[in-house]
Amino acid sequence: MDINKLITFTTLAATGSYTETAGDLFLTQSTVSKHILALEKELDTILFNRSNRQVTLTPAGELLLPHAQQLVGDYRQMLTAVREFKEHKALELNVGTIPTLSHYEGFVLLSKFHALHPEIALHIQEYEAKPLLTALRAGSADVIFLRAFPDENLDLESTASESDSSVIVLPKTHPLAAKEVLTLQNIKDEQLLVLGNSSRLFEPIMRRFTAAGIKPQLAYQGKRIDMIMDMMVSGMGIAIMMQKSVNLDDYPSLVVRQMAQPIMSKVCFARRSSVGNPAMELFWRFLQDQDTPLRP
Are 147 and 120 in contact (CB under 8 A)? Predict the structure, then answer.
């Protein structure tokens, strides 16, 4: 049953006038008449007396009226609930991010945006690098903070980027710690601790070794940087990591050394297209309007 016909029926029952009903519903009198005739045909009964100038309900119409009013009321409540839900969702921003967000200027920008717009509910979800892209494409995240490499085409719109490069992290007591710059040849026989295949850094590292004709000695492939750091403290190997993701405050026995021909990347905010909910659009304009550029 078409809800519009029930709306026309309840309105006509209230006004008693085709002309007034047409005006209230922004319809023509002909459309009002068609709605009522179609409803009467569907129910196989006459709903209105049309013999007088004033349109009145028949006994069947009076029987139908409270049921129709209930259905129309429920329908309008449903529309209100959906509208309020959409308005509420418009004030939510779902941000997906790599685990090391706090090491980058992106974290500062998120914090500043949150302070400027407390009316927007900010939801931040941490993902491994590859599931992060899946979350964006599936709509679980409105915008993501990710690492991208120069040879990639992710088909995403990005902004607020800063560069980052790979380094080698090792214990201060390691013989190679005396060198300021290390090559792949220097570390080819070392036990290597790296973030695994769920990290988008793993494949560029492996490609670099393959190009050099070296088979790396992989002692650990995991998801947690803190695990790698603890393993290095225990003398279980050395690591290739992105420089800005390394924080040695809690690891004074480790040092960072530059990598010859480092793997370059950028970290940035990205989205699928220029169309989004109002909260995402506001955040995107905020990122693009920052007066102070991100550090190189």
Answer: no
Helices marked H in the chain = 3-15, 18-25, 29-43, 59-89, 105-116, 129-138, 184-187, 202-211, 225-233, 278-288
Domain chopping of the chain, boundaries: 3-89, 101-296
Q: What is the rounded (10 degree) CA torsion for 282, 287, 289, 291?
A: 150
Tens digit of each residue's pLDDT (9 = 90 or more) over 242-266: 999 999 999 999 999 999 999 999 9
- What are the tens digits of pLDDT across the range 82-105? 776 666 556 889 999 998 899 999
Closest CA to 195 of 263, 291, 278, 270: 263
Fold of 101-296: D-Maltodextrin-Binding Protein; domain 2 (3.40.190)
